[in-house]
Amino acid sequence: MYVVPPPERSGSGSNGDLRVYQTWKGSNIFFLQGRFVFGPDVRSLALTICLIAVPVTIFCIFVARNLMDDFSDNWGVSIVAVAVVFTIYDIILLLLTSGRDPGIIPRNAHPPEPEPLDSSNMDAGAGQTPQLRLPRIKEVEVNGVIFKVKYCDTCMLYRPPRCSHCSICNNCVEKFDHHCPWVGQCIGLRNYRFFFMFIFSTTLLCVYVFAFCWVYIRKIMESEHTTIWKAMLKTPASIVLIVYTFIAMWFVAGLTAFHLYLISTNQTTYENFRYRYDRRSNPHNKGVVNNFRETFTSAIPPSKNDFRAMVHREGPLPPRSVAGGFMSPNMGKANDDIEMGRKAVWADMGSEHGDAKNGTDERLHVRDGELGELSPDVRTTVDEQSDRLGTRRSSWGRKSGSWDMSPEVMALAARVVEQNQNGGGSSSGSGLVTENRPT
Description:
Residues 150-274 form the Palmitoyltransferase DHHC domain. The protein contains 11 helices and 14 strands. By secondary structure, it is mainly α.
């Protein structure tokens, strides 16, 4: 089992040392260097295998072996052989469902190009930049049918029709049906066929074990001329298997019948529970025969992900101006962050002011360009104070965005800030402006 390591820092290691599965951003777990891809709950796969293999093992040891003497020729051996082969076939289908790419759509490294918000903004003026946005929903036409596709913030793409984002695997999956915890994988376009064959073969296996347990009880009744209850007491393993397979049949047989209905109407589990196509026309329904052909006889498309390919790192996306016009679907959150950042300036000034008064800090941090915001009176007073103390330095002692001042100058600036705050921030003669202004 491979756990995705944390991303390396730039400059450490070479790009050729990493493969796609090693830098995968989803929650998948990879085996054999990316040859098998599982969901994050792959441990449940071991439980599912045990729930299949253990009852069949008990059946072969305590039931089928005793039936070998009751049937002539090779019929007794065939009972054990069929049970073993059927179990192996069932587990192979389980692994084909769980260990392959279900139809993951590769996520984009950057958001798609935004569109103009509206045409009126384009003519707003020569000095204004039109706002750009990524619409949450787009309309696309497929085979003459218009579908609404949604934008995925995680994968930074517009999902194709019938695609959905799995919150467990953290991937967008084509023709997403559901995430099955029993197989530890999403069920989608590339593994739905194997999933249905798995649950259908599991149903047949339950019926097989259930039926031959009753056959064995019947043989005991005939050989010992006893009642059914006494015969059942002589083979407790058969009773346990009958109860177990009866309960399991209700689950897997019901699931098989439900998916037979979905296949016949060309729906997915997600679409059936969310859209309810039985109340309106289903644009994907091609008729019962064609729907079954599409599911079982059409070619499975190749995976869109080469998990063993070498990673080709892309350069970072150049920053875009918020005021200049880029607006993502979550732009409201960005605006809140900007406002919070503005208030944080005052909070920082207040905390530093308190430290200055307590004598615990000897530096007052002023952001770039803020010294020029001081009123002429304040600058003159500070300059005179600094010259008198002999502490004035070139460019006000600027070091990495901060300013070195003597304690006297710092106390003076702190008093100016305090007076400005007490005056409601409306004074135009001695106000210290701490908000960064756009250049």
